[in-house]
Amino acid sequence: MKTYLQNIIQSFQFENLPAEWQQIDLSKFSDKKTLFDYQQKALENALIALYKYYVDCDASKESFFYFYQNNGLTEDLDLKLNENKKTRIFEDFDNDYKIEDDKIAFYHFINRMSFWMATGSGKTLVIVKLIELLALLMKENQISKNDILFLTYREDLIEQFKSHIEEFNESNNFIINLYNLKDYSS
Fold this sequence. Notes:
The chain is mainly α. It is built from six helices and three strands; from the N terminus they run αααβαββαα.
């Protein structure tokens, strides 16, 4: 069995996180919507992973990689560069990713997380709620302050995202501001 972040963090209990990591209502999305248990569990898992990365590993990618290894990761997941355009693009970012022996160590990419959920299961709702959680943790200096970039390859998903943000903003004190990437610099 391959080791994925979800498998690793399932042995940790959300209730054991410090109070400041649990203070938000994971069920409320808007006046019209409440998140299902599995959506709330996805958010709990995300918070556990964030806590492990930012607190237990002090936001160190290398430490987080060792955390993975200590919890069963044995695969070699280094990115091997070849003549393929998809991997050669990383050569343009060699200040960010050290290239050794024509590969980039996996730990450079380890601070990523994704949600693998069925079509129509509410991934967009979970992402919007996660933005609220991230903003709260940033405000309380629990995680580093960064902008959040939402990417998708389909226009209908962008419109769905905007619609969910609108609904969320109408029902909450916390407001999410959206900016088109083309307009971001201004």
